[in-house]
Design goal:
Blueprint lengths: L1 H51 E17 L4 E6 L6 E2 L4 E5 L2 H75 L5 H37 L4 H31 L1 E3 L4 E6 L6 E2 L4 E18 L11 E6 L7 E8 L4 H4 L10 E8 L11 E7 L3 H5 L2
Antiparallel strand pairs: 1-8, 1-12, 2-4, 2-7, 3-6, 4-5, 6-8, 8-11, 9-10, 9-12, 10-11
Helix pairs in contact: 2-3, 2-4
Length: 380
């Protein structure tokens, strides 16, 4: 009984062991197939992603830096802000020693006041001269006109005297009047003739006096020349005064933008020359991403393409942007480095959509520029 049952026991256990092995083999195959499918899917997805995008891992945050340089020579006395501090447009950032400039300004103001006084004095002298000359000319003209009237009267009296001589001579020839009367009439005629001659001389002198006084108006040109000289001196002083005032303004270093103070190049007490850099600023609201795209991919880039941005400072976060500009020269030409060890690269500017996180110029970033969209192309 025992011998018959023993083979049956063996036949019943053997299929069970084979089934377990087959199941394990099936599971391994299934897992392998699943892994292969996953790998293929991931590879296809990555291939599609690389087909749709141009990736650049070595991009950086760019900014417009403002270098504030000294426009005058002088000693820097105080810096009113610290590095990293937010500043506003027009805010006083630094001050230079302006004592010498103040003295120069005061000296020029005093010189301008003196020139104005000279101008006022010369103008008054000119007005007084013209007034006196006008009075003298009017007096001389009145005197000349009075002499003219007197001359006319004398001429009438001379005519009467001549007629009187003729009449007395006629009467004397008829023995009606004595010879003495004729002589008296001749004396009167001679006296009137002499007076008229004197009057003519006086009239000539009066007319010459009027002409001479009128000629003195030429002296007004002397005053005009003096006034023109003073005015030119005043113009020169005004220009120098404006320069001195601007020098004082330039000694007050103010921020031209709303931004952040990045660097202070010189310390208070340092003497700086015209053109020496003092401060470095940038506007944190005016930032972008600059990516250097290989020349083999630049044909795919166009303004307006969407960009996915990854900042090293914020791992596992993605930000959006847009291509705004494509450079017209390679990076090697810009940096005067012809030996770049590989393909040339062209700078591409990307506008970064505002994010509620601090971003600093120079931060590293990676960008994925969407150059093709398969999903859109497959839409009916």
């Amino acid at each position: 009984m025992t011998n018959r049952l023993h083979p049956v026991t063996i036949s019943l256990t053997t299929p069970k062991r084979l089934s377990n092995r087959s199941l394990a083999s099936f599971m391994k195959r299934l897992i392998t197939i699943a892994l292969l499918i996953a790998i293929v899917a991931v590879g296809a997805r990555e291939a599609l992603f690389w087909y749709e995008h141009v990736h650049e891992a070595n991009a950086r945050v760019g900014a417009n830096f403002t270098v504030l340089a000294s426009s005058v020579n002088g000693k820097l006395t105080k810096v009113h802000v610290k590095q990293g501090q937010q500043v506003s447009s027009g805010q006083l950032l630094a001050t230079m020693d302006d004592r010498e400039a103040q003295l120069s300004l005061q000296s020029l103001q005093a010189e301008l006041a003196r020139q104005k006084a000279r101008q006022t004095e010369t103008t008054a002298e000119r007005a007084q001269f013209l007034a006196q000359l006008s009075d003298r000319i009017a007096t001389a003209r009145a005197e000349s006109e009075a002499l003219d009237l007197t001359y006319l009267t004398l001429k009438e009296r001379l005519a009467i005297a001549r007629k009187n001589v003729e009449r007395n001579s006629t009467l004397e020839s008829r023995s009606i009047v004595a010879r003495q009367r004729v002589d008296d009439a001749n004396d009167r005629l001679l006296e009137m003739t002499e007076r008229i001659s004197q009057m003519q001389s006086e009239m000539t002198r009066a007319r010459m006096s009027v002409v001479e006084l009128r000629g003195q108006r030429r002296r007004e040109a002397v005053f005009a020349s003096r006034l023109q000289t003073i005015e030119r001196e005043m113009d020169k002083t005004r220009v120098e005064l404006q320069i001195a005032q601007q020098r004082l303004v330039d000694m007050q270093i103010r921020s031209p933008i709303d931004g952040v103070l990045n660097k202070v190049h010189v310390n208070p007490g340092t003497y700086v020359e015209d053109g020496d850099p003092l401060l470095l600023l940038h506007d944190p609201a005016d930032l972008w991403i600059e990516a250097h795209v290989a020349e083999s991919n630049i044909r795919l880039i166009a303004v307006g393409q969407p960009v996915q941005v990854e900042l090293d400072a914020y791992p596992f976060e993605h930000f959006s942007g847009t291509v705004t500009a494509i450079g017209a020269v390679t990076v090697g030409q810009i940096s005067a480095d012809s030996d770049n060890g590989g393909a040339e690269r062209i700078p591409v500017e990307i506008a970064l959509t505002p994010i509620n996180k601090p971003v600093w110029p120079g931060m590293r970033a990676a960008v994925n520029i969407t150059v093709r969209d398969i999903s859109t192309a497959l839409e009916p």
